[in-house]
Every structure is written in structure tokens, then in C-alpha cells.
């Protein structure tokens, strides 16, 4: 039986918005109908999922089965960690796939793959991701350790502003051209006529290759996303190809680029201690790049910096 509080709705919403812990929000959602909607909205705003064990998948399955369109619309930030795929489990039947199908609005998305997927599993997952990302049109996307065709973002995600594909790669056995050209039978439409600006990009020794293909595709007339207005560029690992690509991006971004940071292989991104960094100040750069980067950069007229 619900209790009906004698308070204006805006006061109730303000009180609920001030609650921080999940347990209190759950209790509050049971107090009254007036409290339930706001409590549920805050409970589902940020979803963090760990799928390292089968029991986690079972719990996610129960959640998805109870996830109504209204509750799904409350999810604004989704993070999936330690995604693992058993050899006897078909990815197309995985609860993650079912969750993706229900999402309609998202502001940020992060997914970390914690195992090697087969070519079929990776293809099914990446196609599902593309459909979900196109449908939700989010601004912040992080996908780690997945074999992915990044050019889909260029043709279908004009609202994308921040992209992190660390550890994502182009798998063996197929050519870059075959992997990166969008399938004409794909039911995800291109966003012709829309023009978005990618502002923050993170790359490493694996992801530079699909990102480079994405960058080349962004130069096409039918592209709906450009790299030319990058404001921040973050590079992980000491990889000559990645360094060269980062240099090209930095030069082509011109005065728009404000910060470029390089973390070497032994430096964790989360510890906040970059090996080298430069910021743009009064149209000039303060540079402290290691010699290995400068040697590669000379091929791209680093003197322009």
C-alpha cells in the first residue's frame, strides 16, 4: 500500500535527487507513487554491469526480462565490464544483446571485452552495438578489446563527441577494405546531411588501425562525422604507427587542438601521470615529447607545431 505525501512534486523530486546510495533509493521507490517515478529514474540513470561469471549473466537476464520501455528510457550511462563469452553460449542469445535492443536513450556507453571472441561472435556483437549506438545517438562511447569496424561511426553517429577504442582491433583473415566498407544490406541507415564533430579521441597500439580507416572514411562526402575539430587527443603505448597517426591528427586539427597526451605502456591512464603532454597557449605549443615520437613526427612537418 502506497503512502501519499502532502508535498509539492518539485520538493519531492529535490529530496530524492539529493539521495546518493542505491539502498535508500530502492526504499524510497516503495513509499508512494509520487516517490516511485523519481526514485526509479535515479536508480536506473547509471547502470554498471560485471559479466565475469555465469551468475552475473543470469542476474542480467532477470533484469532485462523486467525492463519495461519506461525503465529502459531512464538509463543514461551504461558500463559493461569483464564481458566473457563461453564457448557453448551463442552470443545472439546473450542478455547483453537483449539489453541493447531495449535501449533508446543513452548519454555515455562503455564496454570492456575480457576474452577473445570468435569471428562470428565478434561480428554479431559489433553489429548489435552499431544498431544500438545509432538508435541512441550518444556523445560518449568507450569500447575496449573488440574486433570492430569503426567506420560505422562515421556514417551513422553524427552526435559522437568522445571516442575511446583502446584494445579494439581489426582481426586477422580479412582485408581492411572488406571489413570497413558498410554492408549495403545493413538495416542501419546512414545519416546523410548531418555533420558532427569528434572532439576527444583516445587510441593505442591496437585501435590506431580501425581509427585510421575511420579517419580516411570521414573524408568522404557521405560522411556525417569529422576529425578536423579535435580538441583533445590521448595516446597510449609506444607504437610507431600509432604515433604517426596521432601526429597526423594533431596537425590536421590545427588551432582546434588544445591538449595532446601520451602515456607509455608502463603508465596507467587512471593514475593521471602522463609521460608527456602539450597544451596550446597563445597559438604556440609547450612540447616535451620523447625523441622516439619526434623522429616519427618529423615526417609530418612537426615544425608547424
Question: Can you put this structure into words, describing what you see?
Answer:
- This protein is α/β, with parallel strands linked by helices and 305 residues long.
- It has a domain of 37 residues.
- It has twelve helices and twelve strands.
- The longest helix has 18 residues.
- Count of helix runs: 12
- Return residue spans where pLDDT drops below 50 for at least 5 consecutive residues: 172-188, 267-292, 294-305
**Class from secondary-structure proportions:** alpha/beta
- Level of helix content? 25-40%
Q: What characteristic shape results from the CA principal axes? A: globular
**Span of the ends, CA to CA:** 68 Å
Task: Give the total of beta strands.
Answer: 12
- Provide the β-strand percentage band: 15-25%
Major sheet: 10 strands, mixed
The main sheet orders its strands as: 1-2-3-4-5-7-9-10-11-12
Average pLDDT score: 73
Summarize the structure.
This is F-box domain-containing protein. By secondary structure, the protein is of the alpha/beta class.
Amino acid at each position: 500500500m502506497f503512502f501519499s505525501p502532502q508535498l509539492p512534486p518539485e520538493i519531492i523530486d529535490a529530496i530524492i535527487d539529493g539521495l546518493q546510495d542505491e539502498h535508500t533509493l530502492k526504499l524510497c521507490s516503495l513509499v508512494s507513487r509520487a516517490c516511485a517515478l523519481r526514485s526509479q529514474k535515479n536508480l536506473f540513470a547509471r547502470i554498471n554491469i560485471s559479466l565475469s561469471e555465469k551468475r552475473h549473466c543470469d542476474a542480467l537476464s532477470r533484469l532485462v526480462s523486467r525492463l519495461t520501455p519506461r525503465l529502459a528510457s531512464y538509463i543514461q550511462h551504461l558500463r559493461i565490464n569483464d564481458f566473457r563469452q563461453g564457448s557453448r553460449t551463442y552470443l545472439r542469445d546473450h542478455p547483453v544483446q537483449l539489453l541493447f535492443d531495449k535501449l533508446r536513450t543513452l548519454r555515455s556507453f562503455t564496454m570492456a571485452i575480457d576474452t577473445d571472441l570468435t569471428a562470428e561472435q565478434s561480428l554479431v556483437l559489433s553489429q548489435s552495438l552499431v544498431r544500438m549506438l545509432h538508435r541512441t545517438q550518444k556523445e560518449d562511447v568507450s569500447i575496449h578489446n573488440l574486433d570492430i569496424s569503426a567506420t560505422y561511426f562515421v556514417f551513422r553517429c553524427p552526435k559522437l563527441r568522445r571516442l575511446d577504442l583502446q584494445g579494439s582491433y581489426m582481426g586477422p583473415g580479412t582485408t581492411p577494405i572488406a571489413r570497413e566498407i558498410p554492408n549495403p544490406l545493413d538495416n542501419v541507415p546512414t545519416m546523410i546531411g548531418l555533420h558532427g564533430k569528434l572532439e576527444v579521441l583516445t587510441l593505442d597500439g591496437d585501435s590506431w588501425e580501425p581509427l585510421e580507416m575511420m579517419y580516411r572514411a570521414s573524408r568522404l562526402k557521405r560522411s556525417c562525422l569529422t576529425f578536423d575539430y579535435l580538441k583533445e587527443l590521448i595516446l597510449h603505448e609506444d607504437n610507431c604507427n600509432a604515433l604517426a597517426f596521432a601526429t597526423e591528427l594533431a596537425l590536421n586539427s590545427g588551432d582546434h587542438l588544445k591538449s595532446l597526451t601520451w602515456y607509455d605502456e608502463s603508465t596507467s591512464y587512471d593514475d593521471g601521470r602522463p609521460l608527456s603532454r602539450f597544451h596550446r597557449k597563445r597559438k604556440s605549443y609547450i612540447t616535451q615529447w620523447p625523441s622516439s615520437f619526434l623522429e616519427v613526427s618529423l615526417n609530418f612537418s612537426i615544425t608547424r607545431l
